[in-house]
Design a protein that fits this description.
The structure is a single chain. This protein is 32% helix and 15% strand. The strands form 2 sheets. Strands 3, 4, 5, 6, 7, 8, 9, 10 and 11 form a 9-stranded mixed beta sheet that branches. Strands 2-16-15-1-14-12-13 form a 7-stranded mixed beta sheet, with helices on both faces. The longest helix has 25 residues. The relative contact order is 0.20.
């Protein structure tokens, strides 16, 4: 049970709002070469570093609930951590533990999926991202499920394999697909193969309703078997690259594996289907397509096979979507948003479509909707449906317009916002576009600073993980890896770098120690910090605040 926060007797906070600015994908780079943040003219971000107390915060690995410190952070777990003030075991870790313990395969859902195909002599389909990025999925999870299905007597398996190239090197697909094809062929007496696939940013993995045509393209390939046909997935990848050497894995068009001109893996009545991504944001739409009734109107599904469908996890806990899943999601409770609304705080959360769910759903502990609609305002600025490198400034100015309006209104005690530029443009691997995105965002930091100063508020600047700070592949000796053309190899995945922890407090009067911020913390320390800056006492089990009151 969440109760109202207690007022802090040491300090009652400022007259204006506490504004949390999340520069998505902006960390402190390890290497000079390839750091698009350092390469940019960041007048205002540099000003904050020169004039404000600041520290570096951990945003990857165990600091955000991932299995090890070799695991890069991501926007989902980062916003969970910044919203709930504690570290919870996250998707990758939960799934790995469920598989290693055997709990997944002892569960009713797995047994139901297997029994369905064995009773009907039908096919078991696995749809998801094939890589070891460990942000949305992990290929080891897929292989473990296929191995178990084989032990359980399943004779026909079809994998609908999405190319990554964002959480792993941008043209690394064959490193995963060649071993996977060999793995599938190794089950004697069974009919196992890849049936369809394509790039994750071209098909299937849309989020927040930004571009349902992606899901439509995935449905056509995975379910209907429609699309360009090839003899194998590896042949498809090689052919697409031969036709367009510049194509990135994430953007590759669909392929359908066919024999004698007929697709080998359409999804039919009586089949079982698992969407094996564990992260929820890019799983909800394809799940809705499988589970939606006749009122589903996002695209024409042509036919909807009667299947046993399950997600790797329950992607939407409040609305219980999908209806069946293999692993229970983290149970995140008592988030900052719930505490603040219980305490009568008026707050605003805003981003554009690409990250709107992060400052709402993920920030609130994977919970859709407001805690108290009378106190909360959620604002989504519609994203442009164009390649991010073509509009690298994205909607940062429009977001800032609304934030400044909110600050000036005097209505809000707390505002949180996300600038997606550093992450979404960072994933394209286009260095000069990322620089453009950083400089466009930096202008907005200056505008918000001036509004916060006028209102007598506080501005906290951070990120959910790194990305734009590490845009080139580096060798073990630290040198930049070069391609055949002599140019640096682009890196499109997140980094393991720390992120900013900056506090701009223009009406500071000595209430806390600005010279000795607490060190070694993760981004889960922001809720305690923000509550302290607002004049509240943070819950005793929340992670330590960045600041110490005098």
């Amino acid at each position: 049970m969440v109760e109202a926060l207690k007022k802090n007797p040491k300090w009652q906070g400022r007259r204006g709002p506490v504004v949390l600015v999340i520069m998505d994908g902006v960390g402190y780079g390890k290497y000079e070469e390839g750091d698009a943040v350092k390469a940019s003219k960041m007048k205002y971000l540099d000003w904050f570093h020169d004039n404000c107390p600041h520290t570096q915060l951990k945003a990857h690995g165990t600091a955000v609930g991932l299995p090890s410190d070799d695991d890069m952070g991501n926007s989902e777990v980062g916003h969970n951590a910044m919203g709930c003030g504690r570290v919870f075991a996250q998707g990758a870790k939960l799934v790995g533990e469920s598989i290693s313990s055997g709990k997944m395969f002892e569960g009713d859902t797995w047994k139901k999926l297997v029994k369905n195909v064995n009773d009907k002599n039908s096919a078991f389909h696995f749809i998801g991202l094939v890589s070891d990025g460990n942000v949305h999925s992990h290929i080891d999870h897929l292989k473990a499920m296929i191995t178990q299905a084989n032990k359980d007597g399943v004779k026909k398996i079809r994998v609908h394999a999405l190319l990554d190239g964002r959480d792993v090197p941008p043209t690394s697909a064959l490193e995963y697909f060649e071993p996977l094809e060999e793995f599938l062929a190794g089950f004697a007496g069974c009919d196992y193969c890849i049936a369809s696939g394509g790039g994750r940013m071209y098909m299937t993995m849309d989020r927040y309703g930004a571009d349902w045509s992606m899901v439509d393209r995935g449905w056509k390939a995975h379910v209907l078997g429609e699309g360009r046909k090839f003899a194998s997935a590896c042949e498809a990848i090689k052919k697409y690259r031969e036709e367009n050497p510049a194509v990135l894995d994430q953007d590759m068009h669909e392929f359908v594996i066919a024999k004698d001109g007929k697709a080998v893996g359409t999804i039919e009545d009586g089949d079982s289907v698992v969407y094996f991504n564990f992260r929820g944001d890019r799983a909800l739409e394809i799940s809705a397509a499988f589970e939606g009734d006749s009122s589903f109107d996002k695209f024409d599904r042509v036919r909807v096979p009667a299947v046993e469908y399950a997600g790797m996890m329950e992607y939407d806990g409040d609305n219980h979507k999908p209806a069946q899943y293999l692993v229970n999601p983290p149970s995140i409770d008592r988030t900052m948003g719930e505490y603040l609304t219980k305490s009568g705080v008026h707050l605003m959360a805003i981003s554009e479509t690409q990250k709107y769910g992060h400052v709402t759903y993920f920030f609130n502990g994977n919970r859709p909707g407001e805690f108290d609609k009378s106190l909360e305002t959620y604002v989504e600025v519609p994203s442009d449906v164009v390649p991010f490198e073509q509009r690298p400034w994205m909607k940062c100015a429009e977001i800032t317009d609304k934030v400044i309006e909110a600050i000036k209104s005097g209505k809000y005690d707390h505002i949180r916002l996300n600038f997606p530029n550093g992450d979404m443009v960072g994933h394209t691997g286009v260095f000069n576009a990322v620089v453009c995105s950083m400089e466009g965002m930096d202008l907005q930091l200056g505008r918000i600073r001036d509004a916060v100063k006028e209102a007598g508020g506080i501005m906290c600047i951070t990120a959910d993980h790194g990305n734009s700070d590490d845009m080139y592949e580096h060798k073990k000796d630290g040198s930049v890896a070069k391609g055949a053309d002599g140019e640096p190899k682009s890196k499109t995945s997140h980094s393991l770098n720390p992120v900013p922890g900056i506090i701009y407090d223009p009406e500071y009067k000595g209430e806390y120690d600005t010279e000795n911020l607490n060190e070694g913390l993760g981004i889960s320390s922001w809720p305690s910090t923000i509550m302290t800056l607002m004049g509240f006492e943070a819950p005793s089990d929340y992670d330590k605040s960045i600041i110490n009151l005098k």
